[in-house]
Amino acid sequence: MTSQNPNHPTASVPVITDPDVLLQAMLTSFNQRLETVGELIMPGVPAMAEYYRHRIGSLFDSLAIPFQEAERNQLYQILDKKLEEGFALSPHARLRLKYHPADPPKTGLTFEFSVSVLSDIEEYQEWMNQNEQPWFGMTPDAKVLEIAELIEDPKTASVLDIGAATGRNTLALAQRGHPVDALELVPPYGDRLQQIAEQTGLPITVTAGDIFNPLVRMPLGQYQLAIATETLPLFCFDRDRLRLFLVKICDVLQTGGSVLFSLFLATEDYEPDPVTRQMSQVNWSCLFTRSDLATAMAGLPLELISDESWVNYEQTHRPEETWPPHESFLNWATGRELLLTPPDQTAMELRWILCKRL
Question: Which residues belong to any copy of the Methyltransferase domain (predicted)?
């Protein structure tokens, strides 16, 4: 059967009655009237570039957005560049992909990649604001108190508390009689600690600064004890920072002095891949191996005295009513917030590292 075209009486065209064919024709018309607008916000982890490509490709496939291979390749090249750019600025940089209809007379979609970065202080405060109580609690660390008790005359033994935060260790040490210098990156914590020091008359000096800033220096050869109980898991993003930290510690400690710090270490038989290392930084649980630690200590006047489980030690020695420090703390400290291993297995954990200045 044919149908006469009124505009061209002599021409004839086939009549289409197949419902499936007609439905596809209508869907084509329908899709042309769609306006696809959206934004995808992701952490920027360069080692996961292949995963991003799959995720973004699947998104546009689900939206029935046609892509030429050349267009996909161009999109992925921009993606790779932005991932590297963002991570170089901060492990907590966010990658944003916006897409919307192209401006007429063009057709299709316009894509825009951008990177948004907060300062380390802003990122940390944002993370802490998600928790109703301090992540490490308000109780001084049992390991810190154990080391301090070995010092016979606290009044002559100055202590450096790096990343003092709420002051839970600073205050306990000052109450023992130690002159304590508190180095704190986050202004609200430093201001509060300064106020407490002024109100109580405790021997506390608060300095605003970042231990990982090469320009931040503390008095040379001043301290018999240095502690960094929270700083390295949160802000020691790579091996260079770990080395810088240890070099600075050697500068400020007296001969025979001690440094106690917490650090996430992989188990002996586990070598983290680049994806895991980068994700550990994003997850506020910067991960190292014992080989990394040994390399960072190489050539420095430091002797490793002990390497023990943070959780096991603190759970055993803290008052029962103060454990755990935070309801989510154990998952974080045992590495299960990053690597979802079974409860009876682990690939990484928070460790207490004690070293002596030779």
Answer: 159-257
